[in-house]
Amino acid sequence: MGSPTGVTVNTVRNTRRGSDYYGSCELCGKECSEHFVAAKRQVWVRDNGQHYCGHGSGGTYGHLDCLTKQFGDLVNQETLQRDGRVLLLPVGGFDDLQGGSDEH
Q1: What is the pLDDT of residue 56?
Q2: What domain of life does the UniProt record list for this protein's source (predicted)?
Q3: What is the pLDDT of residues 9-26, one digit of tens each?
Q4: Which of 8, 30, 66, 75 could cross-link with 102 by S-S, CB 3.0 to 4.6 Å?
């Protein structure tokens, strides 16, 4: 179990599918050869000091470029370690987030 930190992070992942499956980009309305999904997640801390991402919202689907323009810096989920279904933030990664990414 953990405690909320009050910090959020915007994550992104490649869906490996395009407009044939997801339809148009939710931000620009154009077709996508591959869709990405961005989600805002709360950052939690475990008793041992380890930081992790809570479950995100449904997310926004579209071009990576459109998502970056809309949400700013995105953390690629594929680069994060997992503990079961939980996405772990790297040591020191939480310190970088406290610089204001929760304002996007």
Answers
A1: 75
A2: Bacteria
A3: 999 999 999 999 999 999
A4: 8
Single-letter code of the amino acid located at 14: N
CA geometry: angle at 69 spanning 41 and 45, to 5°? 20
Can you tell me which residue has the tokens 């503990």? Answer: 83
Q: How many helices (H) and strands (E) does the chain have?
A: 3, 7
The span from the CA of 76 to the CA of 64, in Å, is: 11
Give the pTM: 0.81
d(CA 49, CA 11): 21
Q: What gap in Å lies between CA 27 and CA 47, rounded to an integer?
A: 39
How far is Cα of residue 12 from the mean position of the Cα atoms in its chain?
Answer: 4
Written as six digits, the tokens of 99 are 């610089």
- Mean pLDDT score across all residues of the chain: 89
Q: State how far the Cα of 48 lies from the Cα of 104, in Å rounded to an integer.
A: 28
- The residue among 103, 92, 86, 95 whose CA lies nearest residue 10 is 103
